[in-house]
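note to self — DONT lose this again. spent like an hour looking for the file last time. sequence + predicted structure for the chain T wanted, 745 res
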Amino acid sequence: MKKLLLCILVGSLFLGEMNAQEVATMDGQVPDSLLKTFTMEEITVTGARGSMLQQVSEDDVRMLNPSQLSIYKVINMLPSLHQQSVDPYGLADISNYHESFRFRGVEATSGGVPATTANVEELPITGRPGGGASIYDLENFENLTIYTGGIPANKGHGLANVGGKIDMQVQRPGDGLDLQLKQDMGSSDWYRKSYVRVSSGDLPLGVGSFLSYSNTFMDKWKGDGSSTRNNAMFGLTKDFKDKLKVEAFALYNKSKIHTYRSLSYDQISNLSENYELDFSNDPNDLYYYDYNRNEFEDWQFFANIEFKPTASSTLSLKPYYWSDEGYYMETVTLSTGANMVRRWDIEHDVKGVLAQYKYSLFGADFDAGYLYHTQERPGPPTSWKLYAVQNGELVFKKWAVLSNKSNHEMHSPYLATKYRWGNVLVEGGLKYIYYKLPQLITYKTMGIGDVSYEDALATNPEIEDSASTSGSKIEKGLFPNLSLSYLLKSNLTAHVSYGKNYVYHVDIYPYFNSQKSKFYSKGITFQQIWDKKEMEVSHNFELGLRYIAQNWRIDPVIYFSIHKNKQAIFYDEELDATYPQNAADANGYGFEVEAEATPTSAIKCYASFSFNRFYFSENIYNSSGDLIDVEGNQVPDAPKFLLKGFVSYTISKFSFSPILRYTSERYGDIAHEEKIDGAATVDLDITYRDQIFGLKNLGVSLTFMNIFDKEYVSLINTSDYKTLGSSSYQVGAPFTVVASISLDY
């Protein structure tokens, strides 16, 4: 199998006929260290130093992600990006309340990080945990930008950017009236999505607008339960004679999702027998499917107010607001070994503003800005309630967590610059982070019944001082980046870069609360271990080339990263206790390459390969306080090798596109006791596209996913520091067929 995959990669590298006029020129704007862009009819994907997919069409985006519900499915063909799914459509892809996604082996949102890897219009309005994973229809977006390695100071805003960042750009209304209709239907077990968008750029007073709506229904492919989702988005734009531009966008999303049951390592060790094991349909069972679901309702608003004081300067203000309200329900195993159903109620707001001033001076481009961002908890959680089952109904037992409402708050000024001198492009920047973490107050819950969070606080419960903090905690620091790009020849460019990234973990709070008795027996308070927490930072170095031939191109990259204060299970001699703490060091290095070619006008090929090593550079402790030998071990759920590619063949108005994805072996624990075999899956997409009956576009397609019905482990519910016995697993979806028809008037 490995030899076959290698042959496919090598063959893809050297197929081709590309537009000979495309060269690695440094004329015009070359953003962010050879940021690679390509234009598509529907959406553009952009990648910093390692994402090509040049001139990918609307059909390519749809075949990679037929549901248009998950941004991660769109970009997971790129090198060193690892994404797995439990359902074919991406609606239920949740692992530890976060997306199952890694940049170069790094789990960007692990350890209770209250953020995601995706921004919208450069704004951090996709926080987690909560309902923010699937609130966007990708049909409404025209550009995705992927940053890996050191992130430029004027990009990757928000509470975390350690592994990388994705930025999404909204598709503005066109010049005239446009109506888009799309209907999807699929198997495994039944899936449908209806989408409509109306846009106009010719309204009175030069106003442009669009309005979209989608309705999605998905039966689970195994077990009982289903998911529903309703989504609407509105946009309004207005230009005032090239001096002032105002854009405003609003979004509403409501979803109800039944999740899939996680399996133990023993169960996935006999995969064929347990592949379709899921929650039961017996309400007397704690593992009843309707006790494992989540519901969220989201409202979002963001805007862009742009003013041009001079021909070479632009001042913009981007305010944003997001309201997220709902709950998770799931069957959990407590530290005592007992099983219960936990309900996690979530109601939080995210708001802020990004101010930017871009100008040119002495031949250099400058971008000075300031981000103010605040978001209510969670995380960490403010409300956990536990239930038992009696006579087929949930019976309240106790509050597991009752905490105050408090905010994360970030102030982040930055300055970025770009200067071109002959064949050399220099980019650099400096970002300052002032991060004020929320005050964490734990309340005693004895005597408080099954009431709402607000009613529970209204009882004026007593504060549990030993499980609370006395005030807010401040983290701050400077985060520079620098890159040099050199045009060696008309078709060959080299670059070298450095950047410092950051993340802060807050899962120590629920960890402490679930094991308070153990800490109290040693006289340890939460404040003592909270004071020891530090921000994790990574130093990222990279060297790469871009070579463009007449009919093919290739991008090889090597990189190295140093992670300081990485979270790991830590034994504290002073406190005589073991708990997650930012006290370890880790290193990463790797090689990645992507290539594309067009041997004829009818054939297009793409392939990417990556080798990623991300590992602790020292031994760590397990949850019992025993030192375990893990130095040099790859972190969990981080494959060393990824190989992906597709070939698209067009004949007349039909295109045929086989797609291959290979993931090497992984581990579910840092000690490498729980090994997961590598797996290769193959998809096939067939599309017919024409302009008939007065339509701008008619598209009909069939996408066959996992056509060989491969049984494999997909999601691993774990964290980088988890040791033996604390991980769980999900399996990938079986063979699935999706039919789609789209009309554009």
